[in-house]
């Protein structure tokens, strides 16, 4: 049995036609026909139903196709991996990162990683955590730093940071002296949130709902600087990660009485080939899960 035979068989199954498969693979029809006959002889079974105009795999053919798909995928992965080893110094890594993480975690990670691997280029794709997770599950991204619950049958995760949301007010706000804030305290306050598709927005609305309080949402934005500027100007209040505002002396930060814990993790798809540069980045963060904080120096 040859690799070429498996490739011919797979293409015929995909196109249900020897003629179309031959065109796609730039080979002659007799080459594919003879290859399949030899396979059937070697396996002692009929792989295609030839009673109709189009070719469809038999029951045995479908069972064999599953194994062929696995084998050819492994071959492709092995080829790609070997190429990755050759090209590591020229590697490109695309990472999905929500804007809120990008403002305080990634710059620190980026600086240290580039010091260690100056020839690896990092491409950043900025979406909310929900969309980033979906893109990884769909195979559109290799890695993602996400906010929220990373427990998922499709994903593997590496915990990076545990944080919490703080209520953020202008410095002179009437609630500024409270040690903690309840949702009842802010039920009439104008609220500014991240736009739909952001995990933090969902958690906040979920918490309001659990407390049976209807939030007064006046604005949604995916720009953190805009949100912070509006808070400082007294336009409204918001909820931001502790690390984002802890050094901002123009904003009053108060914990919620019922804490909303936030987990940040690096995630990737389970049982999926990871490029060498992806493994390098995972190993880099795994060496110290707290490297995403300010102790990266």
UniProtKB/TrEMBL annotation:
Pfam families xrefs: HTH_1, LysR_substrate
Residues covered by the HTH lysR-type domain: 1-58
Keywords of the record: DNA-binding, Membrane, Transcription, Transcription regulation, Transmembrane, Transmembrane helix
Transmembrane segments: 92-111
CDD domains: PBP2_LTTR_substrate (cd05466)
Protein name: LysR family transcriptional regulator
Organism: Clostridium frigoris
């Amino acid at each position: 049995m040859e690799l070429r035979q498996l490739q011919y068989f797979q293409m015929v199954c995909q196109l249900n036609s020897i003629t179309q498969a031959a065109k796609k693979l730039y080979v002659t029809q007799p080459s594919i026909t003879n290859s399949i006959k030899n396979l059937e002889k070697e396996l002692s079974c009929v792989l295609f139903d030839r009673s109709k105009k189009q070719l469809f795999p038999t029951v045995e053919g479908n069972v064999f196709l599953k194994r062929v798909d696995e084998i050819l995928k492994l071959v492709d992965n092995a080829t790609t991996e070997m190429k990755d080893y050759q090209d590591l110094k020229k590697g490109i890594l695309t990472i999905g990162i929500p804007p809120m993480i990008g403002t305080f975690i990634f710059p620190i990670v980026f600086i240290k990683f580039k010091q260690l691997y100056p020839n690896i280029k990092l491409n950043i794709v900025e979406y909310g955590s929900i969309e980033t997770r979906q893109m990884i599950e769909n195979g559109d991204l290799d890695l993602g730093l996400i906010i929220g619950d990373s427990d998922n049958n499709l994903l593997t995760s590496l915990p990076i940071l545990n944080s919490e949301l703080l209520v953020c007010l202008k410095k002179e706000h009437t609630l500024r002296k409270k040690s903690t804030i309840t949702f009842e305290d802010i039920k009439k306050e104008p609220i500014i949130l991240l736009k739909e598709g952001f995990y933090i927005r969902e958690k906040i609305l979920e918490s309001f709902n659990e407390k049976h309080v209807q939030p007064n949402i006046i604005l949604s934005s995916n720009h953190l600087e805009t949100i912070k500027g509006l808070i400082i100007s007294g336009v409204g209040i918001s909820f931001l990660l502790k690390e984002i505002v802890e050094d901002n002396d123009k904003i009053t930060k108060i914990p919620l009485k019922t804490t909303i814990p936030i987990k940040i993790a690096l995630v990737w798809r389970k049982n999926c080939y990871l490029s060498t540069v992806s493994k390098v980045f995972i190993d880099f963060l795994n060496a110290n899960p707290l490297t995403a904080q300010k102790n990266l120096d």
